[in-house]
Each structure stands twice: as structure tokens, then as C-alpha cells.
Fold this protein.
Amino acid sequence: MAQDLRSYLDLIRRNKPEDLLAISREVDPAYEITAIAAKFDQEAKRRPILLFEKVRGSKFPVLTNLHASRARLALAMGVEPQEMQRAYLRAMEKPIPPKIVSKAPVKDVILTGDRVNLLDLPQIVHHERDAGPYLTAAISFAKEPTADTWNCAYNRLMIKGRNTTSIHLTLAKHLWEFYRIAEARGEALPVAFAIGAHPAIALGCLAIGSIDEDERAIMGGLLGEPLELVRCETSELLVPAHAEMVLEAEILPHERTPEGPFGEFTGYSLGERQRQVVRVRAITHRRDAIFQDISVGHLDHMMLSTTPIEANIYRAVRAMVPSVKAVRVPAPFTCYVAIEQRAPGQGKNAILAVLGADLYMKRVVVVDHDVDIFTDRAVNWAIATRCQPDRDITIVTNARGSDLDPSTKEDGYTAKWGVDATAKPSLEAYTPRHRIPKEVWQRLNLKDFLP
Ligand code: MN
């Protein structure tokens, strides 16, 4: 499979031409890019990939909304939409290590020293109240300073000057841990950011698991071939050879800068906080590079992130409850799980598995397999009719969750809860559901009753 963004766009042009909309009219990077993506979704009920050819103040075209469709994400993995979770789990179980290459299109243009200027990039402001222009599609590539452990993640970067950004490192996650190790040694942490990537790379980057799991190999698993990496100009780091653009940088030790407010996936514009400082040492890019943006907090963002989260939660619950049937993340910090309960207590075990597997998860609802977790009304029905709150709600206090959850006391120090809405003692022994006799249902034909 070709592993660059533009081959994927060619695939879309061939398979789903209506899914890619090139816009030649000039747009203002302040609010208009996000606004047009959101208006297409809300007013036209369409979620095309948007390619803005002319963006005021920059020579780079901007691509956004790529991930706002499940069918497009499935196409990136080479499967049908209903096979996505299985395909993602397969990539986690059978990762393919990356390989190093020497020739790379991302090195067409190499800018170092005074030629580095982040202000030449599209200065995209997404929402009202945002503190400034943000890079939202930057995938970080970093190495643990004392070990051969690698990490990839999405990290939002706020442009602060020609060669400076702030970075939001999610508290207690892997890049934050790497940075803590470097900072304790008084060193900067080298990090490189790829912008403009094949969506299989975007999906692999969001894999959730142990710090030892190499997202680059999961990207390979999703691509079906080793991810091709090339060495950076200013560090030993390795970055995708076929990316549109790479920022080579380091996160400085013992320096902090105001970051935010910024409108996020939570649906809130969380306020300013002190965060780490990134110094950019080189920018490399393709000659006619496409600058990628993620319409943060909209479907482009939500669809991309839930697929890897759901796959990991499914994996974790299955390790505890082998008869798990389905997992869904319908809202921030929320997870629904359907299980075929074989023995009392498995509902609660599923809750424990979810809370143990994902830092962000705060609310887990477990139901029996006869409940369709893709219909919120059905989940509500199960909570209402199969749950006794004093018996079936579990609250875990003083745990770590998302530092973007505005309800937490301080930066993600939070309580978590699970609702066991399975029938007790068992579905078989429970009050039966009302039902129309099968024979009657099959005998009647609506045609006979229409005028
Ligand atoms: Mn990781």
C-alpha cells in the first residue's frame, strides 16, 4: 500500500470522488476553515475532505476533515467499515516493524537555522477564544532518552513565534513520561512532528497500550508493510519518509509558557495553563507540500480517535470477559460494553477492565448482549430496568483521568464510575421481555393492512 497522503487522496478520487472537495476561493485561516467543515456537516449533512487551495498569508494549501467518515478510515485500512475494529486489533496483534530508507520526498526542501519560520505555515485559528493559531495534525515521533522505546502521539502545538510553539503533553501519558526522564537529566527531549500523513498512520499513532508498544509498528500493521522512516537532519530521530512536512524540534527542560485557552474534543474551550516549550530546529517538506489540519472537536477528530480507543478497550475486556460482544465510545470519557454474561460478577469485571485499560475513561456502562449499544435509547432502557444504583454503581475515587476534563478538580485528578446494567442474577432468570408471538409476527404482512 502506498503510504503517503497524496496516494490516499488519489484513491478517494477514484473510489469516492464526491468525498473530496477542492476549494479555490481564498479563505481566512482564522475560523473560516473550521467553520466551513462544521457548516458542511450541520447544514449540508456532508463531510467531504476539504482541500483549500488558497489560504490567506501562506503558500501552503490546507487539507482538513479527512477523518470525518468511517468509510474513509476503513478505506485507509483496506477493509469494509464493519471490519474496522477487527482490522485494527489485527494490526495491534501483528505489528510490522518499520524500516529505514535513505531517499525521502519529505526532504525535497530542507530549512534550518534562520530559514525556519513557523509563521510561513497556515496560521489556523479554530474556535473563538483560542489563544492563537494551532497545529492540530502534528504527529509526534520521539524516543525514550535512556532506552530503545519509541512513541508516537498527536500533540496540539500553539504557534508562538518563528521557531517556537507550546505543546500540550497529556499528563501521565507516554510522551510526558519521556519528557520527565529528559528533564530530570537537565536535557531537552528531541521530538519530530509529521504533518500530512496517510490516515493509516494517523490511526496507528492513536493506538492505546503499554508504553513499550511501538505505534510505528502498528502503523505498519495497518498499512500491511513496514512504515518507511528517514533520519532527521538535526537529531537521531526517525520520521515518515513520505510525510508532507516534518518539524524537527526539541522540548526544552525547565521552561514553561502559557498555553490555551483552546476548544477541544470535550466540547469545551478550556482555559490557559502553563505548558512545555518546543524549539523547532528544522522544517523539511515536499516541494508542493499539502498542510494538514484536523478540525478539532468536530467529526474529523472524533471518528479518528474513537476507533483505536474502542479496539483497545475491546482487547482489554476480552482478556477478562472472553464473551464480550461489543464496545462503543459514544461521548467523551464514556464507554458502553455489551457482554454475554456467563457467571455473576462479569459485568463488574468488565468495568474494572475498561477503567484499567484507558486513562481517559471515566464512565462505563455494561449491558447484556441483547441490548444494542449503538442505540442510546436501548442503553438507557437497560440502565432504567436492570440496574439498582445502590448495588450496581461502582465509584473509584482519586484516580487519574483526562487533564482536559473541565469537571476535574485539578488537571485530571478525578473519580470514575461504572454502571453494571446487566440483568441479575442472570438474563435467563430475569423477568422476560414482552414479545409478540413469533408465529403472529411472521404471518402478518403490512401490505395487507395498507389502504
Ligand atoms: Mn505510546
